Amino acid sequence: MTHAISQPALTLDGADFPVRRIFCIGRNYADHAAEMGNEVDREKPFFFTKSAHALTAPGDVPYPPGTEDLHHEVELVLAIGTELDDASPEQAAAAIVGRAVGLDMTRRDLQGEAKDKRRPWDAAKDFDHSAIIAPLSSAAAGPGIRLSVNGAVRQDGALEQMIFSEAEIVAFLSSLYTLMPGDLIMTGTPAGVGAVTRGDSLHAEIDGLPVLDARIV
């Protein structure tokens, strides 16, 4: 017996927005790179991917198996609405049709093990419910980006701290892939990442965008 798999989707200003792929930019805030002991490449963005089926809505989010060190990373998420191939920064900026608050959940212990053994990060980053994303909005975003756990602020930054801008990120990815409507890009996280456990309540926000509230269960 086969089972149909539904198309992952968000809403954009209340309308359905089917999700195709999820790109994630790493080390795009110098303070976060420093807290993780990493150097920043200012020549071109560093990125990895999540499966579209890693997407999950805010609300109750299961604690994943295989880890004892689940971390939160609050991020600005961009939604692409136009086909792009080797775009200029101006074309890239015009292709962004929505923005949202997102959480890149990370099995940090598995990531550390992968780094030590120089292996891919897939198990650490791309797993069920690892891309928690609020509804998309066509409104402008910024400047503040924040996350609190059980009412205590953990991450408090500004989008202007991003090393690579929205347009630079999108243009770079379009030089490697043909970007299509439905592609999402998570743009990196400021400093202050940390562990969460079952029962923790997370509140994430970016000025001007719908907030994200989730509880780890």
UniProtKB/TrEMBL annotation:
Ordered alphabetically, the record's keywords are: Hydrolase, Metal-binding
Which segments cross the bilayer? none
Q: Which InterPro entries match?
A: Fumarylacetoacetase-like_C, Fumarylacetoacetase_C_sf
NAD in keyword set: no
Residues covered by the Fumarylacetoacetase-like C-terminal domain: 22-217
Molecular function, one GO term: acetylpyruvate hydrolase activity
Q: Could you tell me which Pfam families the record lists for this protein?
A: FAA_hydrolase
Q: Report the PANTHER family cross-referenced here.
A: ACYLPYRUVASE, FLUTATHIONE S-TRANSFERASE
Task: State the protein's name.
Answer: Fumarylacetoacetate hydrolase
Q: What is the lineage of its organism?
A: Bacteria, Pseudomonadati, Pseudomonadota, Alphaproteobacteria, Rhodobacterales
